[in-house]
Design goal:
By secondary structure, this protein is an alpha+beta fold. It is 24% helix and 28% strand. The protein is built from 3 helices and 6 strands; from the N terminus they run αααββββββ. Strands 1, 2, 3, 4, 5 and 6 form a 6-stranded antiparallel β-sheet that branches. About 17% of the residues have low confidence.
Length: 158
């Protein structure tokens, strides 16, 4: 192989690597979107997030989905945790903030700290339209480690 052939091969390899990286970025949501999200959150009254979380902690024993349209995961399930989860020492952050989410647009986000089946966990909880639309283990971006927590009253624990 001559020097020119190896340069051409490297150039093709580099071009292929760039194309693959661009494709992966598009698949992972890193691609350019034609619809730009608004930079400012909508003005909405702060929801009674403690009450919403209290009634949404435990899932229903049975899940019924309407025949006309599929319900979202949390509506379907009826709660953040399964019906058999053992919840204890449930506390909610004393603050809530509006954040933009990938699947639910603008939503209110707060933090939930509890013992789940005997293990301490912290969750980020997302609320929109007066209901929980998502919840997951808290990440650094959620700022839950900076939050002050208060015990949650009126929650169904067991």
């Amino acid at each position: 192989m001559s020097h020119g052939d190896s340069t051409t091969t490297r150039s093709r390899s580099a071009a292929a690597s760039i194309a693959i990286a661009a494709m992966i970025a598009g698949l992972c949501g890193g691609g350019v979107s034609s619809a730009q999200p608004s930079a400012n959150p909508p003005t909405q009254p702060t929801p009674n997030y403690r009450a919403i979380i209290a009634k949404s902690l435990k899932a229903k024993d049975t899940v019924t989905v309407g025949s006309q349209s599929p319900a979202t995961y949390f509506l379907d399930r009826g709660g953040i945790f399964g019906p058999d989860a053992k919840l204890d020492q449930v506390e909610v952050s004393d603050s809530i903030k509006m954040v933009q989410t990938m699947y639910n647009g603008w939503a209110w986000q707060t933090c939930l700290r509890l013992k789940l089946n005997g293990k301490p966990v912290t969750y980020a909880v997302f609320i929109a339209e007066g209901r929980v639309v998502d919840a997951r283990s808290a990440l650094a971006v959620d700022d839950c480690e900076k939050a002050q927590f208060v015990g949650l009253r009126g929650a169904t624990m067991r």
